[in-house]
Write a structure and sequence with these properties.
The protein is of the alpha+beta class. The chain contains 12 helices and 29 strands.
């Protein structure tokens, strides 16, 4: 009797899986413990073994296809057994056009001269490669480069293409041998997850029929239009203003801001014709930007003069140059940053707590530690270590809003925001509370280099429970940061600046660092966030506490 196998949940956060490879074909005899398929989850690609003996009668989706947890994965039974009823019973889980069955048997081979190709044929031969989901947030990928050309022989393990995801540029390896017959997009073009990426097979296949079959089964085939990786700068010529007599509005000493004077000189505007909107008629940058000699002349009264005066000399306007701009397509990384942070800001009720921390003792302690430390310790490393220790004392801050419940994390995984050219990545220092300052320093430096080299992997940026964003090295004194979901808090760290402080009744120069905690009010209350900052302040103002 035929038996249905559903897509199992292979990780605690898995909701769907993508078939990376089938190791058995319809009609093959399968024994218990044999490798059936490779399934790509949100965490990793995992091998799926058969837990029973039988003949593989049906697979729920071809390679590259996506199945939700508990969708129909495969059907085992006896050779020749009719499984149509079982397929129809589970038809809601996957489109019937994308599945492969054992009947009729002749559909498992395609003649090179065949003029029509069914989706069953495509699935059986595993020629179709769909765009895989290479990260947990990926919805589409951009072809950064093809490493194989159409007509070239491809071996299993060869790098087919470099795919730019929302996180990094990753290499996509071939999982079968054959010839690259078709590319679904050119370099620079984007493809949605599960859309047709390429076709690998034997020479002579009717590629057009296979593409049509994939399209008919619900897959999208991007048009072979030229890639639009960048829009050429569009220039709009600004016509030179016609000389016009203007009304003098400023005589004698002219009050104007330095920026307004500089801008007026660049534009060739005489400030005596510009009306100021600032205090005492002071001319500002806005006044210069909005000044139009022609409009000013048109607005001037043209009442007749009773006295005969010499005509005022006409001052020709200098050319103002041309207006130009460059349109650059939004990268995958920037799209996801915009989407996730917009969702965070507009769904999580943010509130902000700012505290000043005296860093005199931390500066002295860092200098002594770096005399012995194998890796140079930065102030950011000290902040990260102090934050990790404070989170252990305030678990409510080390939490996540999960909709129907709040998750209080017993482990401390701190995400460290790293700026790259395309946007922002947040690699995670795991179990930071148990690591030394030297270990934290080495790990953060390694992550920063990997981020710049685009070598971070999904495992490097997943699983944070708290995030730190430090802009102090850029000269920023204080700022607020948007919470990085699913964390409930993020700490914005400013630079260390000398300020007057009171110590023992005396006003002296002190080294002060300002930090701002952004909190999700659904999880963290004001008093909870304030208590966390007090602990953080104590640890940084007396660094010896971090060693106890």
């Amino acid at each position: 009797m035929a038996e249905v196998i559903l897509m199992p949940r292979l990780s605690d956060t898995m909701t769907e899986g993508v078939i990376a490879a089938w190791h058995k074909k319809v009609g093959d005899q399968v024994k218990k413990g044999e490798l059936l398929a490779e399934v790509e989850t949100d965490k990793a690609t995992m091998e799926l073994e058969s837990y029973k003996d039988g003949v593989l009668l049906h697979i729920g989706t071809p390679v590259g296809g996506k199945l939700q947890v508990n969708d129909l994965l495969a059907i085992f039974g006896n050779a020749g057994e009719d499984v149509t009823a079982l397929i129809n019973q589970h038809a809601n889980g996957v489109a019937t056009a994308a599945v492969e069955t054992s009947t009729p048997p002749t559909t498992t081979e395609v003649s090179p001269t065949s003029s029509t190709v069914s989706t069953a044929n495509v699935a059986a031969m595993e020629e179709v490669v769909l765009m895989p989901r290479l990260s947990d947030t990926m919805t589409e990928g951009v072809i950064a480069a093809w490493n194989k050309k159409v007509g070239e022989v491809v071996k299993k393990g060869d790098v087919l293409a470099d795919i730019e995801t929302d996180k990094a540029t990753m290499e996509l390896e071939s999982y079968k041998d054959g010839v690259l017959l078709y590319q679904g997009a050119k370099a620079g073009e984007k493809i949605l997850v599960n859309d047709l990426l390429c076709i690998i097979g034997k020479p002579g296949l009717d590629v057009n029929s296979i593409v049509a079959a994939v399209k008919a089964s619900g897959g999208n085939t991007p048009a072979a239009a030229p890639a639009q990786t960048a829009t050429a700068p569009q220039q709009i010529a600004q016509p030179a203003l016609q000389p016009a007599a203007e009304e003098v509005v400023n005589e004698g000493r002219i009050l104007a801001s330095p920026l307004a004077k500089k801008l007026a000189a660049e534009k060739g505007i005489d400030l005596k014709y510009v009306k100021g909107s600032g205090d005492n008629g002071r001319i500002t940058k806005t006044d210069v930007d909005s000044h139009s000699p022609a409009a000013n002349a048109a607005a001037a009264p043209v009442a007749a003069k009773t006295e005969a005066k010499a005509a005022a000399p006409v001052i020709p306007a200098a050319p103002l140059g041309t207006v130009s701009y460059t349109d650059v397509p939004v990268s995958q990384m920037r799209k996801v940053i915009a989407k996730r942070l917009s969702e965070s800001l507009f769904t999580a009720p943010h509130f902000f707590l700012t505290m000043s921390i005296d860093m005199d003792a931390a500066i002295a302690a860092r200098a002594k530690m770096n005399e012995l430390a194998p890796v140079k310790i930065s102030f950011n490393d000290m902040v990260l270590k102090a934050t990790a220790m404070a989170l252990k004392q305030h678990p409510k801050v080390n939490s996540s809003w999960m909709g129907d419940f709040i998750r209080y994390n017993n482990h401390v995984n701190i995400g460290v925001a790293v700026a790259v050219d395309e946007g922002l990545l947040v690699p995670v220092v795991r179990f930071a509370d148990g690591k030394s300052l030297s270990q934290i320093g080495a790990e953060v430096k390694d992550y920063a280099q990997k981020a710049k080299d685009k070598k971070l992997q999904p495992a490097d940026w997943e699983g944070s429970t708290f995030t730190i964003s430090n802009l102090g090295m850029f000269g920023i004194d204080q700022f607020t940061a948007i919470i990085n979901p699913p964390d409930s808090c993020i700490l914005a760290v400013g630079g260390i600046a000398q300020e007057p402080v009171v110590k023992k009744g005396q006003v002296v120069a002190g080294n002060v660092m300002k930090v701002t905690l952004s909190c999700d009010h659904r999880v963290v209350d004001g008093a909870t966030g304030a208590a966390f900052l007090q602990t953080l302040k104590q640890l940084l103002e007396e660094p010896v506490r971090m060693l106890v």
